[in-house]
Request: fold
Amino acid sequence: MDASRMPEAKTEDVLVVEDLVVETAGRNSAKILSGVSLRVAPGETVCLVGESGSGKSVTSLATMGLLPKGALMARSGRILVEGEDVLTARPARLRQLRATRMSMIFQEPMTALNPVLTIERQLEEVLSAHSQMSAKERRDRIRGILELVRLPDVERMCRSHPHQLSGGQRQRVMIAMALVLEPKLLIADEPTTALDVTTQKEILRLIAEIQERLGTSVLFITHDMGVVADIATRVYVMRHGAIVEEGPIQRILEKPERDYTRDLLAAVPALHPREGRAAASREVVLSTSELGMVYRQPSLFRKRQGTVAAKDVNIKLKRGRTLGVVGESGSGKSTVARCVMRLIDPTEGSIRLRGEEIVGLSRGALRPMRKRIQMIFQDPNRSLNPRLTVGDSITEGPINYGSEPRAARERAMELLELVGLPADAVDRHPHQFSGGQRQRIAIARALAMEPDVLVADEAVSALDVSVQAQVLDLLDEIQTRLGIALLFITHDLRVAAQICDEVVVMQNGRVVEYGPTAEVLGNPREAYTRQLIEAAPGRHWDFPNFRPLAPGGPGSIEATA
Amino acid sequence: MLAYIARRILASIPVMIVVALFVFLLLRLTPGDPAAIIAGDMATPAQLDQIRQSLGLNEPLVTQFVTWSGQLLSGDFGRSLISKTPVLRLIGQRLEPTLSLAIVTMLITLLLSIPMGVLAAWRHGSLTDSAVMAISVLGFSIPVFVTGYIFIQIFAIDLRIFPVQGFKSIGEGFWPFFSRIFLPALTLATIYIALIARMTRAAMLDVLGEDYVRTARAKGLSERVVLFRHALRNAAVPILTVVGTGFALMISGVVVTESVFNIPGLGRLTVDAILARDYPVIQALILLTSGIYVVINLLIDISYAFMDPRIRY
Amino acid sequence: MADKATLASAEPVIRRRFLPQIAVSRLRFAPTLAAICLALIVVAAVFAPLIAPYDPIAMNPMERLAPASWAHPFGTDPYGRDVFSRTLYGAQISLIVGLGAAFVAVLVGLPLGLLAGFFRWIDAVLMRIMDGLMAIPSILLAIAIVSLAGSSLWTVLVAITIPEIPRVVRLVRSVVLSAREEPYVEAAIAVGSSLFKIMWRHLTPNTIAPLIVQGTYVCASAILTEAILSFLGAGIGTETPSWGNIMSEGRLYFQLKPGLVFWPGLFLSLCILSINILGDTARDVMDPRLGKGRAG
Amino acid sequence: MSFLANAAAFRPSRLVRSALLASVVALSGFAAAPVDAQEIRAVMHSGIRVLDPVITTAHITRNHGYMIYDTLLGMDENLKPQPQMASWEVSDDGLTYTFTLRDGLKWHDGAPVTSADAVASLKRWGERDGGAQMMFKSVESLEPKDDKTFVLKLKEPFSYVLELMAKPSGLPTFIMPERVAKTPAGESITDYTGSGPFKFVEAEFEPGVRAVYEKNEDYVPRDEPPSWTAGGKVVNVDRVTWVVMPDIQTAVNAINGGEIDFLEQTPIDLLPLLQANPDLTVEVLSPLGYQTMARLNWLNPPFDDVKIRQAAMTALGQEPILAALVGNPEYMKSCGSMYGCGTPFATDAGSEPIMSGPQPEKAKAMLEEAGYDGTPIVLMQPTDVPSIAPQPVVGAQLLRQAGFSVDMQPMDWQTLVTRRASQAPVKDGGWNMFFTNWIIPEVWSPINNPMLNGGGKEAAWFGWPDDPELDEMRTKFAQASDDETRKEIAADIQAHAFEVVNYIPVGEYTIPSTSRKSLSGMLKMPVPVFWNVEKAAD
Reply:
C-alpha cells in the first residue's frame, strides 16, 4: 500500500472530525480535547494511537455521541459521519445513526455485553430498533452475522449468556453486533487489549476480513504500536488531547517527524531476545519442585474434582538473575507467583527459599522468610493502600521487622530516590502519583525489605509503553546494583525478551518450555511457544530502529489480506 | 439448585433454634405473670398461686422448655394461656389480614418506588433527582402512626372516600376489601417507597456506569429500553435484597399500622400477646415471623438466579 | 518524571473523577440546609434548660390542653405541661437515643464484623446468631426488652440498639470480605504484617465510609423506633420527655389539639430528614453503592 | 404463598392444614354476619380475653357473664336484692335460706337448669369472691333439696347473704352447668354453655378482635320491668358483636362514621368530636361511676409507718388528680366516702385529710415529725392504660411538693399487676404505691370493698394491711341485723380506715357512653347490658 491509496476528495470521507474541542462540564472546566481533526476515507483503516490520557477514547466516544452526560461536553468543532453532523443531531436522529451508519466495539468484551441477556436478544434488539424486519428475517440475519464472525455452533451461541463465552468469542459477538446493520464506519476502541495475543491475532484478522467483505471504514484506537504496524493504512498520533502527527503507516514507522512519535516507537521493546548475561552467582535462591495447585470447591453432597491451576512446576532462580514466566491468561503463571509468595498454599510440591522449605510453614514460622521474598503487583492503583502515605506504605514492612520508625523513614527516602522519585514523596498519598510512579513506589516498598527475590507479577502490563520502558530499566538497574533475583511474570513476549535471562513458557498450568531466553524465543522447540511468537503483533518490525526486522516488511499478511 | 435449597433450609435450622431458645428465655425472664393478668384486680396471693399452678408456670424452666419444644416437634403450638384458644387458630385468624396488608403494601411500594428510583438515577444530579430523593426521604422521616392519622383525617374523615378502620376479607368483594386495606397499605408503603426508591437509585447509578449500558446506547436503543431492559434488570439483585429485608422490617410497621387502622392482624396479636405475657402465643408468633423472614430471604436468593444467569446454585 | 505525572490515566477517571464533583455541587444546597437544621436542634437540646420557659415535667392540671399562646407557644398537654419546653427537652432524649444507638451499634458491630470477615469459623457461628437476631422483628424484641428491664432511657436505648447490631456486623463483614482481596492487603501480608495490623490499618479504614452512612440510618431509625415504642406504650416514662412520648401522649387529641402531635412530630421529622439527607450526601460523595448499607 | 412456604419451613403438611382450617373458620366468621340482621356493633372498654367470669374480676369478662349467663339474684336500682333465676325464703332465725329456681330456665344446649347446677356454681364462686369467702366462713351447708330448690344453712348470723348474691359487679353469682362449675377454681373453663339471654358464638370468637353473641331464642325473661340486673331480660336484637379497637381515636372516628353503634367508654376529652354529631347520643349509663384510689404498701418503709402514710394522704388531693384524669367537671366529683357517694353507706367520716386538698406544708411538718429519712417511694405507673396513667404522674408531683422523694417507675399494666403482687422489699422488686380504679358497686360496702380487709400478708389485698381491728368491725357489720347499725359500723370502719390510711380514695368520675340514635332502651346501670335494647334501621 502507498500514498496513492490515500483518498483526496474529503466529500466522500466516511468520517470527518474538524477541530473538535471537548471540555469537562462544571465550574472549572478543563480541556480534554483541544482541536482534534481527523478523517476516515471509505474502506480504509485509520489507527489512532496514543498513551493513556491522550484523549483517543474521548475522541471516539464523541464521534458516537456517547460522551458521559454531565461530565464531558463538546464545546466546538464538527463531527461529520457521511456528511451529517453528530454534534448537532437530535437525540432521536443520533440514535438512528448509531449502529446503522457508525458503530463501536469496546475494549472489555466481558463488561461490554449485558450479562443478563442472551446473545440473540442483544443482537435482535439492534435489528428491531433500527429495522422493520420480520421475526424470521431477524433470526436469519442474526444467524448470518454470527457465522460471518466465525462463531462455532451458532444456535448454541444465540441461546448463551455472555459469561458462557470465551473472551475471544465475546469480542466476536461484539463485532457481529456492531456490523449486523453494515454501518459504513466501525470504531474499535482497544478491541484486543484485553485479549491474549493469539486471540488478538484472530480478532484482528477477522476485522480485516469483514472490512474487506463489507467495505467498512475502521477507526482503530490502540496504544499498541505492534497492532498499528500490522493493520493501519494511516495513523494519527495523539497526545494531551491533540493530534501530534498524522500520516501513512510506512512513513510514520520509518521516519517519524515528531520526537514524541519517535519516543513512542523507541519505547516498544524489540521482540528479539537480549543477549544472555553472564551468571553472577551460582547460588539458587528460589526453587520449586513438583509445585502444584488445585482449586476445589467444597461441596456438601458430592466430591467435585477441582480445577488444576498449576502442575509439576519446577523452576530454579539464581541470585542476580531474572527468570521470566510467560503464558496466556489462565496458564497458571500468576498461580506460581502467588504460591512462592505463600499468598496461597500450594496443594502439592515444595518451594525452597534459599534452601529452606517454606511450604506448610505456619504463619509464625513463615514470618522471618517473608522478608526475603517480595512482590510487585500488576495494578499499581490497587497495590498501594490509598489511605496511607507513601512513607507509611514503604516503612510498614521494616517496622514489622523491628526497625526504628525514624530509621525506616530515612531508608524510605533513599529508596524513593533510588527508584527515581523525589524524597519528599514520603508524605504524599498514592493518588498524587501517576501509574508509573506508583509502580516505582511499589518497587521501593519491596526493596525496603532487602529481599533476595523479587516477584514481579505483570508488573509493567498496566503501564504505557514509555513508562513501561522506564520501569523495566529501573528493575534492571536495581538488579545489577543489589543483585536481587527477579521472578518476572508476564504475558508480553517483547518484555520477557528484553529483561529475562531465562524463560518458562506455561500453558494450562503446565510448563511447556524452559530455557535461556535466547534459545526459547530465538528458536522455539515447542509448537505452542512458536504460536505465541507468531501471534506477537508487529513482529516483523524493529521499532527502536525504525526498520523492518525480517523480510516481508510491515505489509504483513494481516494488513494486506 | 435443589441441593442449594436443601442446604439453606438445613442452615436455617440452627437459626430457628437460636431464635426459639432466645425468645423462650427472654420471655421467662420478663417480669409478668399471666396468672395475675387472668385473675384481675381482686385476686389474693393464694388465688394467684392456684392459677399459676394450673397453668404449669410453677414448673422449672427446663421442664417448661422441654415440654414446649416437644410439642413443637409434633406440630402442636399449644393454647393461649389467657383465652384458651389454640395458638394455631389464633394465628390462622390473624394471618389473612396481615398477609393482605403486606402484599398490597408491597404492590403499592414497587409500583411507585421503582420508577421513582429509575427516574432519579437517570436524571442523576437534576432537580427531579433531588425532588424524588426528598419525597422518599420525607416518607422515611415521619412516624408511621402520624402518617396514618393524617391519611385518616384527609381520606376518611374529610373526604369520606374510605372507611376509617377495619378489615374485610377479599372474599367479601374487591371494594370492601380494597377500601379498607388501601389507606393502611399506603401508610405502611411510605417507609418502603423511601427505602426501595433510594436503593433503586443507588443500584441504577451503579449500573448506568457500566460498559454494557454504553454499548446499549451505542447500539442506538431508546433510553426506555436502555433503562428498563438493560440497566434495571442488572440492578435487580440489590433491589430484591432490600425488598427482602423490607418484608422483614415490615412487621414493626405492621404492628403500628394495624392498631391505627384496627386491622386484626398478626402484628396486633403479637403486641397483645407480649403485653399479656401469653407465652405460647408469643413464642409461636416469633418463630413464625422469623420463619417467614428466613423463607423470604431464601426465596429472594433463589430469585437472584432468575434475575442474573451468572448466579448458579 | 514530572511530565509523566501529567499522563495520569484519564479514561477510567472520567466517570470516577467527575461524578462526585457534580454530586457535591448538586447536593450542596440540601445538605447545608440539613446541617443548619440539625445544628439548631442540637443547640435546642443542649441549651434546653436555658431556652425552655417551663420545667418540662411541672404540671398544672388546671390549665391542661391549653391552646397555643404566648405563655405556651405549642400549648399544653393533658397534664397542663408546656409542650414547647417538653419538645425542647425531648430533643435531648431523641438525640441521645439516635446518636447513642448509632455509636453503640458501630462500637459493637465493627469488631464483630472484622472478626467474622476474617475467620471462617467465627463467621459461621457469629452469623448464625446474627441471623437469629435479625429474624426477630426488632420492634417486638424492643418491647420485650423494655418490659423486661423497665422503661428507662437506657433500656430503651439498648432495646433499640440490639436489633441494629447485626446489620452493622453484616455490613462490616461484607466490606472486609471484598477488601481482603485487594492487592494492598496481600502486599501487607507479603511484608509480614500481623493480622491485627492488617485489620486495623488496611481493613478498618475501608469500613469507615459505609459505617458513617449506615450510622446515619441507624441514628434516624433509632429515633423513629423510640417514637413507635412510646406509641405502643413501651417507651420512655413520661417524666423524661422525648418526642416519642410527647406525641403518643398527645395522639389522643390529634383531631382536637393537633399541636400536641404536630410540633414534636415536626421536630422529629426535620431531625430525621436532616440526618438522612446528610447520610445520602455522604453516600453520594463516597460511593452510590453504599445505598445497600441501609438494608444491611 | 409465603405462608405455606414458611409453614413448610418448620413442620410440613400438618401445620399447614390446621392453620388453613383455622383461617377458613375465621373467614366463615367474617362471612357469617348477615347484613340485614339486627346486629349491634359495640366497642367495649377493652377486648375480652378471659372467658371465665368466676376466675377473673375483669369487668369485660363480667359483662360477658351478663350476656350468656343468668344470675341467681338481681339487684334493682334501689340496691335491693330481687329474684332473678331464683326466689328465696329466709327462716325466722335468719340462718336458713331456701332458694327456688323459677320455671323455664334452660341451658343453651336445651337441658333444664337444676339446683345442683346452682349449688356447684355458688361453691366455685365462694372460692374466688372475697365477700363470698367471708360468707362461706359462716356457712354450715349448701345442699340441693330437689331439682328446683336448694338450701343454704348458716352456723352463725350473716345478714349480708342476699346482698352478696345479688351484687352486680365484682364476681356476680353467674350460674353455670354443674359439669362446668366443677372446674377447679384456679382453672379457666372451656365450656361456655350458659342459660343467659344471649348465646356465645364460639366459632366467631377472635380474642383481641371480636366476640359475637346471638339472641337466645329459648330464654324466658321475667315479667317485671328491667331494673339494673333484676327484672325481665328481653332481647330485641339478633346479634351483638363486641369489636375491639385498640386505638380509642379510631373507635371515636368509627362511631362518628357510623361504622359501630355503641362505644362503652368515651374519652371525655374527645366528646367535642361526638357531641357535634346529631346521630349520636352521649350519656352516662352508670351514674354511680368509678372510684379512683391510691394504695400504699404497709410492708415496706417508709409506708410501714402510719405517720408517713398519713403525711402522704395529706400531701395528696383529689382535684388535681381528677383534673388530670378527667378534666371536665361535669364528669368528676371529689368524694370523701370509701363506699362511693350516693350509696347507702356513703359517709365522709375521717375523710378530712384528703378532702381538704393538697397541704404540702402540713405534710412536710408531719414528715418532719415522723422522721422521714428520704427513702424514695417507688410509685408504679402503667403507661398503657389511659384510665390509670395520669394519677401517679400527678400524685408524684404532689408528694414531691410535700418533701417526699418519689421514684416513679413507668411500666406496662401487666408488669404492674405482677409486681404489685410482690411482698418483697423494694430492692428485690417490691413497691410502695400504685393507683387503680373501681366501679362503685365493687366498693360500696365494707364487705365488697376489697381494700377493707385487714388480713395482712395472707388474706389482705395488695398492700397487705395487717389490721385485726378492721376485720372485727367487718364481722360486726356482717352480723348487724338492721341498716341503721350497719350504717354506723360502716362509718366507723371508714373512719378507722382513713385513720390508719388503709387506702386513699382520690375522687370519683363517670364515663359517658356514646350510642347511635338508632339504639334505644340502653339501661342505666353500673354494668353495660344489651337486653331491652332496640335497634332501628340506621
The radius of gyration of chain D is 24 Å. Chain D touches chain B through 82 residues (CB under 8 Å). Residues 1-35 of chain D have pLDDT under 50 and may be disordered.
